[in-house]
Amino acid sequence: MEPFATLRGRAAPLMRANLDTDVIIRIERLTQLGRDELGKYAFEAIRYLESGRPNPAFTPGHPRFAGAPILIAADNFGCGSSREGAVWALQGMGFRCLITPGYGDIFRNNCFQNGVLPITLPADQVNELAVLAEQGREFHVDLNQCRIRVGDHQWLFEIDALRRQMLLEGLDEIALTLRGDEAALAWQDMDRKRRPWAWPDKVATR
Amino acid sequence: MSRTLFDKIWDAHVIDDLGEGWALLHIDRHLLHDLSGPPALQNLADRGLPVHNPELCFATPDHIVSSQPGRTGDTYEKGRRLWAGLHDGALANRIHLFDLGQPGQGIVHVMGPEMGVVLPGLSVVCGDSHTGTNGGVGALAFGIGSSEAVHVLATQTLRQRKPKRMRITFKGNPGPAITAKDMILHTLARLGASAGVGHAIEFAGPVVRGLDVEARLTLCNLATELGAKMSMVAPDETTFDYLRGRPFAPAGSAFDRAVADWRALVGDEDAVFDREEVLDLTGIAPTVTWGTSPDQAISIEERIPDPALEPDMGRREEYRAALEYMGLRAGDAILGTPVDWVFIGSCANSRLSDLRAAANIATGRQVAAGVTAWVVPGSEQVKRAAEEEGLDRVFMEAGFAWREPGCSMCVAANGEQVPPGARAVSTSNRNFVGRQGPGARTHLASPAMAVAAAIAGELTDVRRL
Fold first, then answer.
1. Which of A8, B169, B326, B361 is surrounded by the fewest CB atoms within 10 Å?
2. pLDDT tens-digit profile of B310-335?
3. CA of A191: how far to CAs of A188, A195, B302, B445, in Å?
4. A97-144 residue pLDDT tens
């Protein structure tokens, strides 16, 4: 996973509550395309008009936000389906950092798994940042300091230490967990005795 | 210290305390389907890693396969690759596979409890947000993304942060026409689509105790739409009776041993929840959604709300956009809204009791001209049991199509879509923009209300039929 430490650039505002992962990426794009091909289909239902031309109401699609690495959104962003492709689609649009008052739980986990930083701030602060984003101001995000800076102003955010370390170092969770596999195996041995009913006795046959 | 049911099950699965509320959790069951399963198995193979515990993994195709009568894995041609990926990946890794036409095939969250694969007190994951459905039998079940699924395949564990505890208690007397679907849509309207974010929900109270297991599964299924990754109902005699004799449930003395353990799965009486909600269901009416988020729900007797009255900016914009997408006007009655499609199915409402309730309304009546109506049973077992009771004939005589088990039009991943601009009443769980197909307009409702809409050709109150 690509490490995340600092980021600078514009932020695109998209202030509509409860934007679900079905809207972020349609299911058939996931079944028919590779993960690197999803960017142009992100938000397609609200990003394009029926004619296929850009929908002027979709702010992140405006030319002045082209290449913006930050997306600012309203509450409960990424609710709904667990599809990790929603994160890949956002990455395909160029986003590496999100700022919202809240996320769908699974979506938020998926962000961390892909080196995308999902920052949570109180709604009034997100609204302030959305205004600055609209003005085209440059944002500085610093994960070491857990700080967003725009001009002379700064906003501090919180993040779990484990998550922060994973992002900063770009760690692979699976390799990390497998290093402690002995503990898992010992737990399983204990559990087979404690809860024999939890272990199916039917084995799949080839 | 007093603990909730959720605390007890969580604690029982902690292999390692990682600090700050994080834990390395053991995963007792990993369910795989044809959408998220094949890429996860492929990723594992690419890493050169084996499946850690194949005996704890159970796979079935549901999302990408056609529901057309007589279908095979490649009836939906664009889904063939994923269906074959699940099939081959399961066989190569010695994972239990319930394939098309076999008992056990079906929507993964219907399969789990019905096969006895999911049991009280187990930790269960699946690359699917509606995995919390399995909490209806008292399991600690939650959805995960693809990366996490690979982690579970490789290690049989997950790194998770413990969520907060929330209890929703239903009291009062909801009346005989009110189903679990109405109760949970009502709850969504009251609490909102993010009420459960970061929480594990326990449904409690006398109303919940009186529900059968399938209704509890419906409740937990739509708790996902409250934003809760996991939700549960404490297991009781109703649960144990439901599980007895299921193919993968323990049998004989092992079952008795299990029940003895399961009886301990209750929260301490003085356990404290981080959030408590008590809803009085007396007098609630059948409930439907009007917008593009499952919390945009009203009783069938109400009028469509006005976005201008919403104080929050993001919410106001959400409501405005929802009305525009749905082609509805604030202030109009929802009753009498014309309907083009009706879909009865999905992990919310496709079990035998749902189909019985639907058939009960359909008996001796006819689907209105101009309405296309489908019944997609949740699983091969549900399908066979329904056919044994003659429910398929009831539906077909009334003008419904009777199809093969799977997710079908709930998520429209298999090409089965509601056409653009068409209005559907669906027993599923999501009315998102484009969910049932680009431009499709979805109203969520109970099976009885969906059949009533099919017959009337418009949204109607099933109690008036």
1. A8
2. 888 778 888 999 999 999 999 999 99
3. 5, 6, 52, 42
4. 999 999 999 999 999 999 999 999 999 999 999 999 999 999 999 999
Nearest chain B residue to A46 by CA: give it.
B433
Among B134-138, B277-281, B310-314, the range scoring the smallest mean pLDDT is: B310-314
- Sheet with strand B96-97: strands edge to edge: B96-97, B57-59, B29-32, B123-126, B140-143
- List the domains of chain A with CATH numbers: 6-198 (3.20.19.10)
**ipTM above 0.90 for this complex:** yes
Nearest to A23 among B55, B197, B434 (CB): B434
CB B107 within 8 A of CB B89: no
Q: Give ∠ CA B365-B419-B60 in degrees, rounded to 5.
A: 80
pLDDT digits (tens, 9 = 90+) for B370-390: 999 999 999 999 999 999 999
Gap from B49 CA to chain A (nearest CA, Å): 10
- Tokens coding A150: 């725009």
Residues 162-201 of A with CB under 8 A from B: 162, 173-174, 177-178, 180-181, 183-184, 187-188, 191, 195-200
Q: In chain B, what are the domains?
A: 5-163+237-262 (3.30.499.10), 287-464 (3.30.499.10)
